[in-house]
Amino acid sequence: SSKIRNMEVQSADGVAVLEDCIGFSLTKTISRVEEKLKKGGLPDCPDDDIIPSVGNEMAAEAQIRFLKAKLRVTQEDLANVVFECRKKDDENQNLETRLKDTEEENARLQHTISMQQSQTEKYKVLSQEANKKSEGLQQEVIALEKVLQ
């Protein structure tokens, strides 16, 4: 049988029961199955593969033990699936958190880029004005040098 990792399990009449499935009364279900077996057995289902063909020759107690063992294995499988689902849910939550953080960082960086682009445009305009002023002053200097000569 497979091992259950990180799952809390309770025992009821020697059968493992997941805490998530406590609302489901396993003992009542087993009691009903036992009563049906005592009253004359369960209805025959040719497609039912729970009890193999040898099961027809088994005594009622052996069938109950077999069904309990099958139930235990199924519950262990369920516990493993629940564990994997929880693990995937945790992983999804972590990824969602990382995505949210990344989107926030992206928005912050976009804002920074937009601010820097506006500052770049502002400094380009100031630079062009300074270049024009510098050219005007150079021409004035040239004109003044001609006057001085």
Automatic annotation (TrEMBL):
Alphabetized UniProt keyword annotations: Coiled coil
Taxonomic source organism: Xiphorhynchus elegans (elegant woodcreeper)
Highest taxon listed in the record's lineage: Eukaryota
Protein name listed in UniProt: TEX9 protein
Residue stretches in coiled coil: 85-147
